């Protein structure tokens, strides 16, 4: 018997695939006049060009003469997806030609068949430029849109027009656990997916989810951004007056996000975050996840030694439980600013070198209280006036 550590992790299905299945099932019920409890949809072509069929159980079926509705319970496999077990639902309504004029979001009239696709309860609305979906439209990404339209056409009789509304009960609450607010998607979750499949615990998928923040920043006119490891940095940057659209969370993927900014045309970046994370970068760690190691106190000791800290101070820092304690020790001995300015300098130099000099980088190191305790190259950036 295989252990949990060796067993193969299950893949799951994206919200886009589930929405396509629900929409196709609702359309099939509406025009057949019968309730159905299962449906198959074709997944987008994978890297090898193959297309696979996926089968789904249909729940919550309702049917009358002009509309049908149903849901698919999302199975994310072994991925810790916030939408796992959520109901992804669709209403399909038959419309006359006069009802199809105007507001034809997602409309596809080819083959004599008109389709309006929109979002309902629990599906977010895009409010910021720079995403794959236009401002004002439901947050249903391009591949899921195409899947939904293609699958519904397979069961839509010639000459029939329909309106499809995708909705997610509880989607607004679920969206609070995503990056949607940061990206300007309000009121619910996004309907996502490029392959139709959710790969379990994919680091690459997480990294890819961070990239739209750069697009939003650039679409709002910023070629200088603030890169922060997480919520502490983001909150403090915004409270300083830095525009929210210019603040980008990079999580642990410092090197990846620096390269992405340079690749997309960002010119300058301010690294702005807690000393605990950015000390790791100063020590050469471009992925700051704890699983990659912990060099924080060693970095602080190294810089303190170079700046004249005596043996007793160095021992206290070495024995400290946290970087905050190390900060207090240095501040009590009049070394805090010098040491953390030096660490900020190292972080900027490491970041600049990692991008091959394509990105001008400044660094501001924060304490947990939000105080800037170390800085370097700030004057090169437009954000200097806020700090």
Task: Provide an overview of this structure.
There is one protein chain. With 387 residues, the chain is of the alpha/beta class. The protein folds into two domains: 12-197, CbiD-like (2-Layer Sandwich); 203-386, no CATH class. The chain has 13 helices and 18 strands. The strands form six sheets. Strands 4-5-6-10-7 form a five-stranded mixed sheet, covered by helices on one side. Helix 1 (15-32) runs parallel beside helix 2, helix 9 packs across helix 10 (296-306) and helix 9 (275-282) packs across helix 13 (336-354). The radius of gyration is 25 Å and the shape is elongated. Residues 1-6 and 101-112 have low confidence and may be disordered.
- End-to-end distance, in Å? 58 Å
What's the CATH first level of the largest domain? Alpha Beta
Strand order of the largest sheet: 4-5-6-10-7
Kindly name the structural category: alpha/beta
Provide the CATH architecture of the largest domain.
2-Layer Sandwich
Question: What's the CATH topology label of the largest domain?
Answer: CbiD-like
| Percent helix | 25-40%
According to CATH, the homologous superfamily of the largest domain is CbiD-like
How would the global form be characterised? elongated
Model regions low in confidence, pLDDT < 50 over at least 5 residues: 1-6, 101-112
What count of structural domains?
2
Mean pLDDT: 89
